[in-house]
Amino acid sequence: MMPQGPYSDIVMDHFMNPRNMGEIENADAVGEVGNPACGDVMKLYLKIEDGKIVDAKFKTFGCGAAIASSSITTEMIKGKTIDEALKISNEAVAEALGGLPPAKQHCSVLAEEALKVAIEDYNKKKGSG
Amino acid sequence: MKRVYFDHASATPVDRTVLKSMKPYFIENFGNPSSILIEEGAIPHRAVEEAREEIAFLVSASKDEIIFTSSATESNNLAVKGLALANRDRGRRILFSDIEHYSIINQADFLRGIGFEIDFVKVDINGMLDMEDLKRKLTKDTILVSVMHANLEIGTIEPIKEIAYFLKEHNILFHSDGAGTCGTIPVNVKDLNVDTMTISPHQFYGPKGIAALYIKKGVRLTPIVQGGYQEMGYRAGTENVPAIVGFGKAARIAMEEMDKRVEKLTLLSKRLWEGLASSIDYIHFTGHPEKRLPGHVSFWIEFVEGESLLLWLNLNSIASSSGSACSSNVLARDETGLKASHVLTAIGVPPEICHGSIAFSLGKDNTMEEVEHALSVMPGIVKRLRDMSPLYERFKKTGVRDYKL
What we know:
The complex is a heterodimer of chains A (129) and B (405).
Chain A lengths: L8 H8 L12 E7 L4 E10 L2 E10 L2 H14 L4 H5 L3 H7 L8 H24 L1
Antiparallel strand pairs in A: 1-2, 2-3
Chain B lengths: L3 E2 L10 H7 L16 H20 L7 E4 L2 H15 L6 E5 L4 H4 L2 H6 L3 E5 L9 H7 L4 E5 L13 H10 L3 E5 L11 H4 L3 E4 L11 E5 L25 H39 L3 E3 L10 E6 L4 H10 L2 E2 L1 E2 L2 H4 L13 H5 L10 E5 L6 H20 L2 H9 L7
Helix pairs in contact in B: 1-9, 2-9, 9-13, 10-13
């Protein structure tokens, strides 16, 4: 692979071949977050059955690290229960990517936040429904 | 496809003839140019003076008005701090244009700390200095104004002559950063009527780690590096002889080839500009449509983030640069550097969408085939990134943007 400056091969792989990119129609949960400092916007769609995340998709407007963080997060949460998914920290996302440059750590934070916002959305819908 | 280099505003390759001219000054003619009484020093001394002459010739200055420094950044610091310190008895107010390079803008805090008042002058949507704003912000206490000759992010060439003549009427010193123009387009410092001008060779096929400052005869300037008495007392430190020799050679070649280079770059960038405009929707070109650097095409694309675009271009063998905050400080220690480009925000691009900006700066060795390659890959990359963008998804569904244009 061509050298990509500060990014690991895993980041570049997810950037070039993002997993689970797209939307889920009638998603059970949607979480959208943005980082005004950088301008990245991340949207996460979840399909949840019996408290388990059975499908996850994302759309991201952002840099290489933001796209890779979204992509790997969808992989990490698929098949997990909500409680298990909530335990995934931004450090775990960054670690799974083989590390992120210090200035790009916020991209993994954004992924963690998108997940939390999506689960909040799910709990809200469940509570009201 | 071999690598296509469209980032000449960042650095150009050193011309082979330039490199050849530098080589003897590493090992054979290695002496210290200050040791002029011995042959080992006299030879490099002569070489430095010959280079000084070439650079003076490039910008129509006198030889004793050219001072060597280590970089355009140092030249900009020497000019602004040096003029400010030498003239503080006349006033304390200094004006910078809103789109100056960081090597000017980031002097503001230091200067404020030692008692100067710094203010910024607006530019219009094309990046041209707003003369009315300059007039409004001038006071009797103003001693210095700094406006770059051309902005390397958006390509706009500023009306330096007009600004200089206006400032002369008010007896105000004028510095211009000519890093983007000297050696690229004709520059005549006497005609422009500037007091100081930065000249940097790594934009015209010379080496890095060397630059010069034109200091008009009679202008008072305090040195900022203390030490020996090199460079007529304006800049202490042993001269970087090989780089100076290369700088001189690059200046000579630039003079000889300038017309040919400009003609070719104009042709290539015209095709690039028109090709992008016709193949990509929601693309916005930045900078002045005519008064711009030859070979410079800059734009931002809605619903696409600049660093991702830059990475995909790189994967398609094209090197470019992005005003995206995310690409500008990838190696920063933290997120403090992740701000939208001050140049793009100054020309009115909403901060939320500055991140889609790209600059293609072409050079003398680029070809039409390379331009066509860029035009062939761009629409696919843009589509790919838009398909992934929640902003574009929303726009397609509602016709509403997340920001105001």
